[in-house]
Amino acid sequence: MKRELERYSRQVLFDGIGEEGQRRIVNSRVVVCGCGALGTVLAETMVRAGVGSVHIIDRDFVEISNLQRQVLFDEDDVKERVPKAIAARDKLRKINSETTIESTIADIDHTNILKFVEGNDLILDGTDNFEIRFLINDASLETGIPWVYAGCIGSHGQTMAIFPNESACLRCLMDDVPEPGMTETCDTAGILGPTVNVIASLQAVSGLKILAGRRDLVSPVLTIVDVWDGTYRNMSVANLKERANCRACDAGEREWLSGQRGSQTTVLCGRNAVQFSPPQKSSISFESLNGKLASAGDVTFNSYLLRLTLTDPDYDITVFRDGRAIIKGTDDIALAKSLYARYIGN
Predict the structure, then answer these.
(1) Considering 152, 186, 249, 269, which one is annotated as catalytic?
(2) Dihedral of CA 242/245/249/250: which sign?
(3) Which value, in Å, is the radius of gyration of the alpha carbons in the chain?
(4) Which residues are bridge partners to 315 per DSSP?
(5) Same domain, residue pair 216 and 269
(6) Which pLDDT tens digit goes with each residue over 59-107?
(7) Of 180, 211, 244, which marks where a domain is finished?
(8) Is this prediction's pTM over 0.70?
(9) Among 134, 181, 189, 276, which is disulfide-ready with 154 (CB 3.0 to 4.6 Å)?
(10) What is the pLDDT of residues 17-70, one digit of tens each?
(11) CA nearest 42: which of 53, 52, 28, 56?
């Protein structure tokens, strides 16, 4: 075994990867979309496995409720209100200095996703909502880059590898985003840490097979696991593409990538919070905004975000450099928009 692969010697010894597969992994590029529960496990696994470049994209900052399942964060990150992408990057650089680790604080949308995925060999889904997943699906079909979908809630989760224009895509599996109230959320069902770890690990295995040049070993299945009941099943999707009459695969629709679908305002799962993104991205001066908001409430800021805490009523507004904000204390979209307009501006 060559000296440059010694770090990965136990992985190289595994017959499914071997020295050739490890070299492929070392020369590969992966983008992790979302760095919460799934994303932290995925990013750490890719970095420890020796992926040459890992780009982490996340819109949020670390909160105390994240620590139960988001494995790259600690109490210092909560105290310092560090964006997840930055906290993850800093931890991962201490784990493997040989991997190039990029981080971007951003909300993934139709205006930026192609820029984020371009040049990568694999897209990993660490998101928490179907609108972004359908956007990733569009971007995958448009670029030809494979991706691995996953989602989990409570004690159960599911995952499926998608090879654009070859295998069934996400819209073959489900034609549209589920209607509000039709699926469980973190608020109604909670989430177990072991659920996240199992599903993300299965995602990572599919990802490593693809990166190691063993995509022939990725089974055409939707894997469904319930860690509490101890059940595991694979639902075949081998012929789904041919049967689905998919508007994305067959008809070439790109509703999310074109911006026809998808909202600028999102209720954040389990947070009693709403994310608001203005129609036009900007570059906010926190110093100027601090002066403007000083009389409105308690204002603190760092290099990445500014936080306004209101005591009457009790709301918390966190603003990012691009003008995006997370309004905590409500899940009412209209109220969140009103608070944004009142304190940050139109």
Answers:
(1) 186
(2) positive
(3) 20
(4) 310
(5) no
(6) 999 999 999 999 999 999 999 999 999 999 999 999 999 999 999 999 8
(7) 244
(8) yes
(9) 189
(10) 999 999 999 999 999 999 999 999 999 999 999 999 999 999 999 999 999 999
(11) 56
Contacts (Cβ under 8 Å, ≥6 apart) of 140? 117, 123, 146, 147, 162, 164, 169
Residue 249 is among the residues annotated as catalytic for this protein: no
Domain co-membership, 207 together with 339: no
If you search the block for the tokens 């310092």, which residue do you land on? 80
SS3 state of residue 174:
coil
Residues 310-330: pLDDT tens digits? 877 789 999 999 889 999 999
**Backbone dihedral region of 280: left (phi > 0), alpha (psi from -120 to 50 degrees) or beta?**
beta
Residues 6+ apart with CB under 8 A from 248: 137, 138, 141, 169, 171, 172, 254
Q: Which of 120, 170, 168 lies closest to 145 in space, CA to CA?
A: 120
Q: What is the CATH number of the domain that holds 324?
A: 3.30.310.10
3-class state of residue 323 by DSSP:
coil
Q: Which has the closest alpha carbon to 159: 173, 145, 179? A: 173
DSSP string, 19-88: HHHHHHHHT-EEEEE--SHHHHHHHHHHHHHT-SEEEEEE--B--GGGGGT-TT--HHHHHTT-BHHHHH
Q: Tell me: pLDDT of 270 over 80.
A: no
The whole-angstrom separation of Cα 150 and Cα 161 is 9
CA distance 17 to 132: 31
At residue 183, φ and ψ (nearest 5 deg) are: -125, 155
Query: In whole angstroms, what is the distance from residue 99 CA to residue 138 CA?
Result: 28
Q: Does residue 119 carry a pLDDT above 90?
A: yes
Q: What CATH number is associated with residue 214?
A: 3.40.50.720
User: In degrees, to the nearest 5, what angle opens at C-alpha 105 toward C-alphas 102 and 107?
Assistant: 125
Contact 197, 38 (CB under 8 A): no
